[in-house]
Amino acid sequence: MQAIILAGGLGTRLRSVVNDLPKCMAPVAGKPFLHYVIQQLLKQGVQQFIFSLGYMSEHITGYLQAHYPQLNYQVSIETEPLGTGGAILLASHLAKENDVIVLNGDTLFTVQLSALYQLHQQQQAACTLALKPMQNFNRYGVVQINQQQAITSFKEKQWYQQGLINGGVYLVNIAALQQAALPQKFSFEKDYLEVQVNTGKLYGLVQDEYFIDIGIPEDFNRAQQELASLG
Prior knowledge:
Blueprint: E1 2-6, E2 27-28, E3 31-32, H1 33-43, E4 48-53, H2 57-67, E5 73-77, H3 83-92, E6 99-104, E7 107-109, H4 113-123, E8 127-137, E9 142-145, E10 151-155, E11 160-173, H5 174-178, H6 188-196, E12 202-206, E13 211-213, H7 217-226
Helix pairs in contact: 3-6
């Protein structure tokens, strides 16, 4: 298995607590948050990594060289911000597999990757999303699926009593992405997923597993306690 980790974010909402590091390098329980993301993937059998970098990329490359000298990885570096989609598309040219896991370096969602692969391959999907059930929230939009687990719509951010959110872990068919005639800069969510929703090639797997996104200070602080036991 091969994974693209998106780690080029500016982390503007975390500036009040971490102002001199890329967001994924924010220290959580004594280690960069990226450590927990890498360990979770290694635990599930991911053997090849592509790090999509941009802002302060030298912090991440230095960390990988010092702490993961044996890791099989490549680096894709944006010279200017390309959006989530542009970053994935640029990194996809380094991929060696037809289907690649894509995830955010500032989110930990302990998805069962084997189940994600099974659904993705069974349906010959262009992209399969890991969906997290959530209650009483307004920070995320909602994803709707039918009985066949095909995604039928993406709903805007607003207050929801309950719903399935996009957990930021994808299994992406590289050929389908590269053949979609996308610009150099684009949003993966808005300009690819939401455009492709009517093709019947997007699927969602509900995974009620541990989820945390350190993009805002209160969740960053919560991560200090919750991830301390992972080491």
